Amino acid sequence: MKKYIPILKRTQLFSGVNESEIESMLSCLDARLKYYKKGEYVLREGERVGSLAVLVEGKLHIQNDDYWGNRSIIGDIAVGEMFGEAYIAPQSDTLINDVVALEDSAVIFFNVTCMVTTCSNTCRFHSAVAQNLLFAMSEKNRKLVQKLSHMHKRTTREKLISYLSAESKRQNSSSFSIPFNRQQLADFLSVDRSAMSNELCKLRDEGLIAFSKNNFELL
Amino acid sequence: MKKYIPILKRTQLFSGVNESEIESMLSCLDARLKYYKKGEYVLREGERVGSLAVLVEGKLHIQNDDYWGNRSIIGDIAVGEMFGEAYIAPQSDTLINDVVALEDSAVIFFNVTCMVTTCSNTCRFHSAVAQNLLFAMSEKNRKLVQKLSHMHKRTTREKLISYLSAESKRQNSSSFSIPFNRQQLADFLSVDRSAMSNELCKLRDEGLIAFSKNNFELL
DNA sequence: CCTCTTTTGTTGTAAAAACAACCGATTTGT
DNA sequence: ACAAATCGGTTGTTTTTACAACAAAAGAGG
Q: Which residues of chain A have pLDDT under 70?
């Protein structure tokens, strides 16, 4: 667990809390570290979760496979990001998505109750973390709405432009890389891979974008 | 403002706080009441907001009109629900959606900073509200993911079934009403109205659903 | 009660996406 | 280094949607 404290320090959740303070908070927040092999499920649809999770190593996808095997990728989780925050309320229902490891990964689970109620211990930074959590959830919320705005686009072309523009803006550069391969991007935008591939090439031939592998540039 | 305290009492945000306590918190939270006529914009895309809003009268839509007039309805806000929670973090960007009044409406804006930092005043229920806010955002988050799961469906038919099933489950009944007319539902699911209307009638003719106006039943 | 407006359903056509099948290039594992 | 698997691009066909135009029904207002 200790080796991941520097990672935690750089997360939005523990922003403003130094390493020794994080270390002392770990027991207070009932932190539990778990490892997952590539392809393993971290959480499964239908399960009940009561804890907040932070990815400290690897890469995850939040996704959903339907009866016929069609996959929807709701979002991706990179190192330092949290997940499971949509299920911290006592009245929360069961999970509606799977969370799966794309690479060998490590996740730390925290007891949210401890995070939310001020503890009597020495955790002076309790309230800071609680506030960070609030802001982190606010941002997450905004990201979801932004993803919704891509999904609201009617055509594959528009979805691509919407997504690529947003990524370009987010990464503050006209050239950027995306965390998906073609199939994953198609699953993320909920379109057919071949049709999307076709559309990407059209956009390239029209001189609007350039790309190679998962590196893109808006022109 | 006073007349809306009973409304506030029933909101998730002020759950567990009684009316007199809410009244004493209003000044502490810098509450400001504003009225909007039907059709008026409560918030506009590109604006910067720093406050958390609660609808205490009327009905709102969170939406987005593109250059060609195509409308996307991201969500609807009923009395007692909050909005603007995605912009409470200091590093939040500007609004990416419009919020518009569908009926004459009343909105109370709160200063989030006051809500998050414990005040030195008599507000014993400060922390309760802060915790409520966290849970409310968690739920909101889950609703957004659920809407994403409708949007991920490829066909109009699947989107309809996904949405109607979720509403049925949410309202705990096989017959329920929805807060949209046909055009609004189409904008909400991002499909063509006439095609959707057609699909609805097919579903009805196949005996899967029944409906009249905005009352639906799953069979 | 009648008119005007809004809402909903219907239909035909054009456009777009899904699907399937295939190939070449790249990557991975041994 | 080689075989197998994965990945990305291409094309033709089928299915679905978007679009447009219109008619019927419902609702609002004088």
A: 118-124
